[in-house]
Amino acid sequence: MFQYNNNLWLIILVLIILSCSIYYLFSYKEGFSNSNKKISFKKHIIPLFTNHDIESMAFHFDLSKYEDVKSYSDAIYERVKDGTMPCHGPWTKKKVALFKKWIDGGHMK
């Protein structure tokens, strides 16, 4: 009986290790592909700004123009991070992180 219990515990341990390994592999692969994903202004950043945002900031710079957003990206980031921009309500953490990733990735056009 004692031998049977040892084998059972060994099987359970192997299954746990196997399931954790499979989970880790899928998580790592998904995280790896997302971390290497190129964030572009046209595809990812422009959709973050609504027409209302663009109109509200037109007196200072044009949020629909790559060069303007690139030039003011650090200031824009600080404002969206602290929730003071856009004026109609703060961005989600996911949107803020996407904008930061675009900046850190070199402001891809």
Describe it for me?
The chain contains 6 helices and no strands. By secondary structure, it is mostly helical. Helix 5 packs antiparallel against helix 6. The longest helix has 34 residues, at 2-35. It is elongated.
User: Which sheet architecture does the biggest sheet show?
Assistant: none
Shape: elongated
Question: Rg, please?
Answer: 23 Å
Got a strand count? 0
Please write the string of helix (H) and strand (E) elements.
Answer: HHHHHH
Helix and strand content put the structural class at: mainly alpha
> Could you tell me the strand content as a percent range?
under 5%
The N- to C-terminal Cα distance equals 68 Å
Please name the defining characteristics of this protein.
68% helix; elongated; mainly alpha
How are the SSEs ordered, and which strands pair?
Layout: H1 2-35, H2 41-45, H3 51-57, H4 66-71, H5 73-82, H6 93-104
Summarize the structure.
This protein is mainly alpha-helical. It is 68% helix and 0% strand.
